[in-house]
Amino acid sequence: MLLAETLVEPNIPRRLHLGASGDALLDNFSGVRLRDVERVSIWSPSGRLDFSWFPNAEGGLEVDVPLTPREREVLQRGGVVSEPADPDRPDNRLLADLTDRDVTGQLRTYTRVVDRRGNPMLLEVYYDPGDIEESGEQIGSSFRWITLGGLGALMLLTLPLLQVLTRRLTRAGRERARALQSAIVSSDRERRRIARDLHDGVVQDLAGTAFALTAVARDPRVPADAQDVLEGAGSAVRDSLRGLRSLLAEIHPPDLKAAGLEAALADLTTPAAAAGVAASVEVERVDHASDRTAAVVWRVAQEAVRNVLRHAEAETLLVSVRGVDERVRLDVVDDGRGFDPAAGRDGAHYGLRGLDGLVADHGGRLEVVSAPGGGTRVTVEVDAR
């Protein structure tokens, strides 16, 4: 408590706790304007009122009030306690009788003080809460302008810095976007080059080798045992050729505008024969479909066929694309083990779930219908244009 440290404790008479006069201390209070203080009292450990002061006082109070356990604890250990004033305390009743001063509604605060010899005493101060609130509002008002002014100055100082940082971040974002786009273009160019080199080199060589092996195997001059070996070798080369063409489709999707949707879908199902799956492709009335629509259909078909070959354990696979009015419909149907859609799509169909957004952006919908042991049907309908 500031009042105790600055005004009371340094000026307590040495023998006040023994009943000495507190006139010197009273003179200190009389020379200071205490706006919020209604009364100041100093109590001895025995509960004797050794000193009292209140505004416009002509004399002090003489009364004994035994200290409460809480007051004794503060007297021994220190601390500050605030509580509502009790009008029924003996000293407060005496004050009301002598001066008509009512402490009702006031705030009573007490703490420990010591004189210059180290004798503990209890300092008691009564405050008017209304005056405290008014003073607090005045102080808060003063600091409010200081705070607002400081914030305003801080904003003025930091605004140019924020603008510079924003421009740098924007520029860095654009540079990252350009770098990413460049990386995508470079990656696409490289995949296209690899696919072209494989198609023009290894694929053509394997195709020629398969044709030559078949031709030699059918030559009547070749022994029967050698014919069987050559037929087997030719079949193995053709299987490898189909697998390589499927790999080329994975490395770089075909140019659907050039190759046509039906040929591209046929390449997708090429590995089915090696997996023991009878695959068929049907494409009808899709001439009015845009290149973008064909790309969306091919992308979904690629993921669906991949799932069938890896997870479905199917015997048959049908990839059907049909134009219906201004829409294009894709159906990928298998007779594999299926799954329970109510339990959520399993990991095998996670890729299809990732294509929902792609299909929706093209004004379409993707639906997966399946049941355990009943196969799976993947259906996509998108706008033709």
TrEMBL record:
Principal cellular location given in the protein's record: membrane
GO cellular component, one term: plasma membrane
Domain Histidine kinase: 299-385
InterPro entries hit by this protein: HATPase_C_sf (IPR036890), HATPase_dom (IPR003594), His_kinase_dom (IPR005467), Sensor_HK_TwoCompSys (IPR050482), Sig_transdc_His_kin_sub3_dim/P (IPR011712)
Protein's cellular compartments: Cell membrane
Topology in the lipid bilayer: Multi-pass membrane protein
Keywords: Cell membrane, Kinase, Membrane, Transferase, Transmembrane, Transmembrane helix, Two-component regulatory system
CDD domains to which the protein is assigned, alphabetical: HATPase_UhpB-NarQ-NarX-like
GO molecular function: phosphorelay sensor kinase activity; protein dimerization activity
Entry protein name: Signal transduction histidine kinase
Source organism per UniProt: Nocardioides perillae
